[in-house]
Structures are given as structure tokens and as C-alpha cells.
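QUALITY CONTROL LOG
STEP: pairwise intake check
CHECKER ROLE: data steward
CRITERIA: each record must contain a sequence immediately followed by its C-alpha cells, with no blank fields

ENTRY 1 OF 2
RESULT FIELD BELOW
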Amino acid sequence: MSPMLILAAEEMENPLVPPIPELVIGLLAFVIVFGFLARKLLPNINKVLEQRREAIEGGIEKAEAAQTEAQSVLEQYKAQLAEARHEAARLRQEAQEQGAALIAEMRAEGQRQREEIVAAGHTQIEADRKAASAALRQDVGKLATELAGKLVGESLEDHSRQSRVIDRFLDELDQKAEAAR
């Protein structure tokens, strides 16, 4: 290489390498700004980060507490639901038992009323039969007396004789009717 080029190359400075005084001033300015930021800004940033960390941890703790409380409420709800189902089953069973008892009671009352009605019917039938028998005796007695009077040709108006004849005739009829049964 020519000496001139070497000289020109020496005089020509590298544009990428700053001059030393600028490098020193830049380095001092960087240290001053870094120190200022480290003293003033870094504690505030750390403080805000710490508050956020505490808020997040507190939120997690609150979420865990809420989850625990929700689990507790869920268990209580399940217990109440189970108790309500048990109570409903018990009430349903009681209602069925009461219904069965009521049906049995009504059946017994119906049976008793039926028996009373049947007994009253038998009594009424017996009374009607006796009344019909008495009316029939009286009518048959009159007819028999009239017929006997016409046959005999004399009046059987004697009351005592008439009663004896009628009673004897009807007693014979009753005996024949009972023997036929």
C-alpha cells in the first residue's frame, strides 16, 4: 500500500467508534441516569409490584375461601335436600297409613250401618208380617164366620165362640205351614 493511503487511513477515523471524550461523557450520563432511576423509580416499581403480588395472593386466598364456603354451602344444601326427601317420604308413608286406616274405618262403619239397616228391615218385615197376619186373621175370621153361618144356617154372632173357632182354625193353618217348611 502506498504511504499516502496509510496516512490518509490514519487520519480518517472510524465512524463507528466514537471519540474517547464523548464515550466518557456518555458513560457518566448513563451512570447518573441509571443511579437516579435506581434510587427514585425502582422502589416505586418494586412497591407497585409487591402490592400487585399481595393483591393476587389475597385474591387467590379469597377465591379459596369462597370455594371452601361454597363447598360448605353445597354440603348443607345436599343435607337439607336429603332431609327434605326423607321428610317427604315419611309424610307420604303417614298419609298412606292414615288413608288405609280411614278406609278400614269407613268399611267398618259401612258394615255396621248395613247390619243396622238389615236388622231394621228384618224388624220391619216381621212387624209387617205380624200386622198382615193379624189383618188376615181378622178377615179370614169374618169370612169363615159368615161362611159357617151360611152353611149351618144359623148366625154365629156370639163373639166368644167366634173367636175360639177362628183361633183354632188359624192355629191349624200355622202348624201346617211350619210343617211344610
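ENTRY 2 OF 2
RESULT FIELD BELOW
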Amino acid sequence: MSGRKTGEVTALQAALAAEHAAVYGYGVVGGRIHEGRRTEARAAYDAHRARRDALAREVRGLGAEPIAASAAYALPFAVPDSAAAVRLAVELEERVAGVYSDLVRAATGARRREAAGALREAAVRAVRWRGGSVAFPGLAERAGAETDPAATGAGPAATGAGPATPAPASTPSPTPTA
């Protein structure tokens, strides 16, 4: 495989891993979200499943074996209620957007357009969940840029944890535990 193609497969595998984690995470979101947002959670879950399946086909099409989902994933924070489920949905979408930004950079042609579309969809879902937007979703987190924790729902008050430390975009969230 050429260096560019190897980089593309690596980026596809990272996107696939992020989609596996998002599907798992949305299972948790769906179990905790209040009734009024369950349809939105189900639509996001279905979208991530469809993207996951498409990415697995693309990886196979390039002659590689798609990475498998982990049996379980550690959540970035406890999700005891609907408010935490919304924060988890935002976190999932932001991390997926970051991974797709890597795929946009690594890919060309139709695959790049598809990755840009997936990045846009994740960014739009994050905005809907959050109720507001950030400049260049998926990129500010990678650059280590500071954002207003109250606006993003990622700060200590929102999660009950210490300072927010975004994972690299190539690291899927939630974190595998198995």
C-alpha cells in the first residue's frame, strides 16, 4: 500500500473506532435522556450505525480488516440523568467531528467529500444537543484552544470532574474497557 493510502486506511480505522464508540455511547444516552429528546437520540444512534457500517465497507474495500468494536467503553463521566446524557451526546459528537477532520485531511476525492459531510453532520448534532455552536467543530479541541466551559458543557461544573481535557481526535470516546 502506498504511504497516502496507508494514511487513509489509518484515518478510516480511527473514524470507524469513533463510530463504534458513538454507537455504544448513544445506547447510554438513549437510556438516560428524557422522553422529549429520545427521537433525537435514536436518530443520532441510527446515523452513527450507518456511518460505522459504511466505514467498515470502505476499509474492506481498501484490502484491510476493519477494527472491531470493544465489548464495552468507559464513559468520560457518570451519566445518571438526562442532563448528563445531553453532555455525553455533545462529547460524542465533538470527538467524532475531530476524527472526521483527520479523515478529511487524509482523504481525497469522493472519500474526502463523504468525510466532510460526516464532519458537518456531527457538528450540527453537537450544536443541537448543546443549544449553541463553537467555531470550527472538531478543530478547536485538537489545537488545545480554550473554550468557554459553560457554553460547551465540558467544564468541571458540567461534569462534576476536574478540568476538561479533551482526548485527541484520533482517540474514540468513550474509552474501551475490555
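INTAKE CHECK: passed for both entries
DESCRIPTIVE NOTE, ENTRY 2: Helices lie at 3-32, 38-61, 82-106, 109-130, 140-143, 149-152, 156-159.
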